[in-house]
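Record minuted for completeness.

…
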Amino acid sequence: MTTTTALPFHVGRDYDAEMASDGHSRFGHYVREAVAADRDPWDSDDGRAEWAALVWRAATPPVMAPGYVRYHHLIQGARLYRSQWDGALLASVSIATPPPAPLTRLRDWHGWPTELSGGEYVPVDPSERQVSEARGGFLLTVTELAFALPETVLPALPATPDAPGLAHDAAVAVGALVGALNDAVSPVIEAL
């Protein structure tokens, strides 16, 4: 797979503002809903990792579609969560990749189907028709990255769940998370 040089993650602020039903931010609405349903960050001794995971979930599919955070076309998904072991903020990023060399020699197996989107071919799941009609099948390989984010990227937890600047604080947190994820994932994307 050849890819263009692009960051693994970026924030779609313009689209978010243009499509906001409240005239400000779609993301802000989703963050307020997420906080109303999940007060865990404020119920623990240090809720910064829970807060980071909460704002990430609110900013990405399937909660927001399209997401406030946009992915490089090879990224299949990205999840942030608090480690039950030590409270660190952990990341899991799935990337569509070509099959390892030993698998490329297998006959009758096809790699990721692609479709043209925004001027580049992006990997997509095969349709049921493609699977039914293919000689052989599809060999869809994914590389899963699992890593801890540095503690320095953990955002400050707003003082209360109903703080007036909650949406702004969440947007700042997402920006910092995107930067840290780009630092970790960019070398992998560039190597493909």
About this structure: Residues 9-95+140-150+164-191 form one domain. The mean pLDDT is 90. The chain is about 35% helix and 20% strand. The radius of gyration is 19 Å.
